[in-house]
Amino acid sequence: MTSPFDPAALRAFRRRDWASVRRAKEQYWAEDHAARGPLAGLRAGAALWDQARAIDPSWPDEAQRAEDLAHHVDLVHKLRRLDHVFRR
């Protein structure tokens, strides 16, 4: 069986100018925010919610909601532990 990964492609990916990629993403989202306004992200989230419900009207069920809440609580705890980093 051959590997699904091309080693040369992986090396090229690793050598990318990640600072340039970051700047390009920041510029894109700043321009998007300026053009579409702050509610664009909320509208996109609502559209994703509607799409998920169209595929599975029972989504999310109670177990999925509990799992999602647990992930959010865990994230909050992790962010609080890193609070000092964001205050610099």
Task: Describe the overall structure.
This protein has helices spanning 7-14, 18-36, 40-55, 62-81, 83-86. The protein has five helices and no strands. With 88 residues, it is an all-alpha fold. The mean pLDDT is 91. Helices cover 76% and strands 0% of the residues. The protein folds into two domains: 12-57, no CATH class; 59-88.
Question: Which properties best describe this structure?
Answer:
single chain; 88 residues; mainly alpha; 2 domains
Topology:
Layout: H1 7-14, H2 18-36, H3 40-55, H4 62-81, H5 83-86
Averaging pLDDT over every residue, what do you get? Answer: 91
Distance between the termini: 50 Å
User: What fraction, in percent, of the residue positions are helical?
Assistant: over 70%
**What integer value in Å does the Rg equal?**
19 Å
In short:
The chain has 88 residues and is mainly alpha-helical. It has helices at 7-14, 18-36, 40-55, 62-81, 83-86. The longest helix has 20 residues, at 62-81.
